[in-house]
Specification:
By secondary structure, this protein is an alpha/beta fold. It has one domain. Helix content is 34%, strand content 17%. The protein contains 5 helices and 5 strands. The protein has a 3-stranded parallel beta sheet with strand order 2-1-3. A two-stranded antiparallel ribbon has the order 4-5. β1, α2 and β2 form a beta-alpha-beta unit. α3 packs parallel to α4. InterPro entries: Plipid/glycerol_acylTrfase. Keywords: Acyltransferase, Transferase. It comes from Sphingomonas edaphi. This is Acyltransferase.
Length: 155
Amino acid sequence: MGASHTSNWDFLVFLGTVAALGRQVRFIGKHSLFKWPMGGFMRALGGVPVNRSSPQDMVSQIVAQFTSHDDFVLVIAPEGTRSATTKWRTGFYQIALKANVPIVCAGPDYLLKRGVIGPVIHPTGDVEADLKPAFAFFRTLHPRHPERASFPDEC
């Protein structure tokens, strides 16, 4: 899970962090980002287009990817937007719970000029309790646009 996503520059920090880890990582993005001229480039970087109008279908499709690929690593921005929100979307949590995979917290810190990896969460089904360490971790990071940051206390 990558947060706080407040700028398109976050994507470049993400790419640098992934390169440093040496892992093939997938990410989801709104389907409109995958049209010409950027579509091929986004897919080559590991992008998976999603239509956010059907969240339940999206969850089941991504869970299927986890169950059919042992090395599938996915990054999702829980805010679902670069604008400030009062609550995070919980699709990332439902995906991890149903696929029986951990959630690794990570995000850009523009003050430190680096990507930071935080706690690993093993979903139990109690979304509020499970995500408290994530909420605390993300509050320690410095987003590019703090006024757009979403630091909820609950989902």
